[in-house]
Amino acid sequence: MSRTARIRLFWAAAVVFAVAYAAACTGLPRFGTLAHPYATRAVAAALHQRTANVVSSVNFDQRAFDTLGEESILFAAVLGTIVLLRHARDERTGRPRPGRVLPSTRLLGMVLLPVTLLTGVYIVAHGQLSPGGGFQGGVILATGLHLAYVAADYRVLKRIRPLAFLDAADAAGAGAFAALGLAGLVAGGAYLQNVLPLGTFGQLSSGGLVPVVNAAVGVEVGAGVIVLLAFFLDQAVEVRSPEEHGTGGGG
């Protein structure tokens, strides 16, 4: 296809999209009114599905298929980073230099690391009950692990970071979300339809499929962020420039 044909095709698609978007916007309620049809339906649906946190109900139940797409974007970003930042043939690596950390920083990091990890697990596990969920809790878990880098150095982080296991966990979390959608089809409903027992409102086991999908997202996000940062840190700390490698700077 020639450049002129591609430009014409782009403008034709842009015009169609602009007309459709403008027509859709005319059907929205006016700003500043008391009419919120989507919010009203979302809250009612969340209560019906016994999910106390309406946001989690929207993300992992009412529009779970959209959330699957969002999770896939993160998974693709991690995969792309692994491919782009893998070691090239002309790259040389050196041993990370030991870091110098104040005793107060080391002590604070040692105290906060388990607390942060526990907080992340709590946020993921209670996503259907209170603000938070898999995305937020997964980021907290990844942040907690990297307190070892702040409070000690890269060598300590590398020792406590099971990268091969986290690679597999990232893929397993993303795959579990997609596989859980089949439960609805097996039950004769729709993909990602909430078909598990809804439990008791306000309890940890409430929400049916919501906490299970939420946990899969927490695993995928937590593991994915750690793997993502691992490759960036590897480039910043271990990979040496030719000049630095030649002068023995990798010690």
TrEMBL record:
Compartment(s): Cell membrane
Keywords, ordered alphabetically: Cell membrane, Membrane, Transmembrane, Transmembrane helix
Domain Na+/H+ antiporter MnhB subunit-related protein: start-end pairs: 107-226
Superkingdom of origin organism: Bacteria
Bilayer topology term: Multi-pass membrane protein
InterPro entries: CPA3_antiporter_subunitB, MnhB
Transmembrane parts of this sequence: 68-86, 107-127, 133-152, 164-192, 212-233
Protein family membership: Belongs to the CPA3 antiporters (TC 2.A.63) subunit B family.
Protein's name according to its UniProt entry: Sodium:proton antiporter
Record organism: Streptomyces humicola
